[in-house]
Amino acid sequence: MFNLKNLFTRALLALMLLTGAGAALAGPTYHVTIDSTGYSGTGLLDFQFSTYVPSDDTAVFLSNFTGDYTDASGLAAGVLVGATDGFGYFAQTLNLGGRFGFDARFDSGAMSEGVALSVGLFSDELEQWLGTSGTIALIQLTPGEPSFVEVDTGFASASEVPEPATLASIMLGLTLMGSTLRARRKK
Predict the structure, then answer these.
(1) Residue 125 falls within a domain, yes or no?
(2) pTM of the complete model
(3) How far apart are CA 103 and CA 159, in angstroms?
(4) Start and end of every Ice-binding protein C-terminal domain (predicted)?
(5) Distance (Å, rounded) from C-alpha 33 to C-alpha 98?
(6) How many structural domains are present in the chain?
């Protein structure tokens, strides 16, 4: 006998498995927030991306920039910083005195070898790097080890962003479990 509800449930589960497969190709994403409220003038946000093994497919994608960046026209689409020769750099000028934010997504090549993203903040008015040793945030990923995230708490915070497909899969799983339990109770 043809059971439409059973077919719909299986099709929905297959769809969720397919949407989750695409997310598996991307590495983790971190949201970094920078607070420069105690400073004024212009400055520079400096990104340094490095890898232990140079590779063409190892990169970090910087996106979702928020804050008072100068000449931010190229930031809307995001910035891909590669490490073909082992190092990649990107710098963005900004107006200090507020909060800034961005997301850093490590692409699939980053998962095969160790990588690091270092973020520095320079004050033109003070003519110096702010934070501990000029680094306000450091994210290191090494295969087989937990992620290492270090921030200068006076300037920055960083947190991992959950993948949308992961959240959707959890919600679908809970929904399917609930409908299965409800169907068993009716019998």
Answers:
(1) yes
(2) 0.73
(3) 10
(4) 161-185
(5) 11
(6) 1
